[in-house]
Amino acid sequence: MQPHDQSGVKLPYEAVVEKVAEAGYRGMALDFGATSAADIKRIQPMMAQAGLTPFLVDFPKTIEALRPTLRMAKDFGAPFVVVIGQVMPLSVAGMIPVIRAWIEMSEAEGMPVLFETHRNCITNDLYSTLCLLDAVPEMRLCADLSHYVVGREMTLPIPQREMDHMSRVLARSDSFQGRVAGRQQVQLQLDFPQNQKWVELFKGWWAEGMRDWRARNAEGTCVFLCELGPPDYAMTGPDGREMSNRWEEALTIKRWAEEIWQGLEG
To answer: Residue limits of the Xylose isomerase-like TIM barrel domain (predicted)?
Structure first.
C-alpha cells in the first residue's frame, strides 16, 4: 500500500486505512520491515476505528528483539506475530534452539508466533525448514510459498516430490499469503497469459492450505493476506513504472481466496 498502484503516489496512512476498510478487508498487516514502530503505533488506532484487525510482521535480529513486538501485538489485540527471523545459523542444529527460544518467549508473553516461509531469514531454504518442522513439532508457519518456488527454481509441472514437500509446509501453516510466483520471479502479474499456469498452481495450494486449516480448526478465523509488494517485488518497465496495478490485483486475489473458501464450505 506504499505505494498501492502504478502512480507511485504514497497515500497518507489515514487514506490507506480507509481504502482497505472500504474494499471489504477485515484486517491489515503492519510490517516492521517497511514501517517504523512509531508509525505502526500511529496506524493501529486508525485501524481500530475502521474495524480492521492488525497483525504484526517482525524481522528480529536477536532473540530478545522479538519481545517488544509480542507485547505490542498483545496490546493491539492481534491474533499472532509473523516472524521473519534474522538470526540465521548455518546448520539446522544451530537453528533449532533459536526457533525454540522464540516459541518459549511467545508462550511466556501470551502471543502466538508464526514463522513465515521467506527468503533471507531462518526459514530461507525449503529443505532446512522441513528439517525444523520435524525437530520442533510445535513450530507453526505462515505460508508464503512464492519464496520457495523462486528459491528452489521449481519447474512446471512441479515434481511430485516437491509437491509433497509443499504439502508438508501447508499442513503446518496457520495463515497464508497470496502472491503468485514463477521459478525466476517472486511476484508475477496475474493477468498475463504466460502466467496463468502459475496462477492455477497457487490457487491449488491455497485451496489445500485452507482445507487443512478447516480440518484442524472447528472455529476461529483463517487469515489470508493479499501481499503484493512494491518494487523491487513488483516488476517495472524501462520507465520505472510498475507493469500492473497491485491494488486491483490484490482485490482479485481477495476474490479468489473468498471463492476458494466458499467452495470448501460447499
So the answer is: 17-152
